[in-house]
Write a structure and sequence with these properties.
It is a single chain. By secondary structure, the protein is an all-beta fold. The chain is built from no helices and 4 strands. It has a two-stranded antiparallel sheet.
Length: about 70
């Protein structure tokens, strides 16, 4: 619930949202365990799970897929 508070010295008002006091650490999920890459499409050995390349940028410029 929002709350409007007055600053005691500056004669200004501000809005306080108590439900927004969460920090990024409140949303952490379980960390990946090293060696548990069976579902990771980016890990070596799972190249077949990566979708086809649409375009590739190299030193020679843009190479279209195909």
């Amino acid at each position: 619930m929002l709350e409007i508070r007055r600053h005691y010295f500056l004669e200004e008002y501000c809005i306080i949202a108590a439900e927004r006091n969460k920090r990024p650490s409140n949303f952490l999920v379980a960390k990946a365990i090293p060696g548990d890459e069976k579902d990771c499409p980016f890990c070596p050995g799972h190249e077949e799970r990566i979708p086809p390349t649409l375009a590739a940028y190299t030193d020679d410029g843009l190479l279209p897929a195909g």
